Amino acid sequence: MDGMLALYIFMLAAFTGYEVISRVPVILHTPLMSGSNFVHGVVLVGGMIALGQAETPLEQAIGFVAVLLGAANAAGGYVVTERMLAMFKSKEKN
Description:
The chain has helices spanning 3-22, 26-35, 37-52, 57-87. It has 94 residues and is mostly helical.
C-alpha cells in the first residue's frame, strides 16, 4: 500500500469519526457506544491488517496507531456498557 494512500485513508477515517461522534447528543452517546462495540472490533481488525501489510515506517506507525486506538475504543465501549447495565440492577435492601 502506498504510504500517501494510507495517510489519506487515516485522515479520512479520523475526520469522519470526529464528525459523526460530535453530532451525537450527550444523552444518546452511551447507548450508541454500547450498541456499536462491534464497529470498534472491525476497526481493530482493519488496523491489524494494515499493520501486517505495512512496508514503510510511516505505514507501520499509522497501523500501530490504528490498532492502539481501536483497542482502546473497544475496551472503553465494554467498560461503558458494563457501567450502564449496572445502573439498571436492583439494589439489595439491608
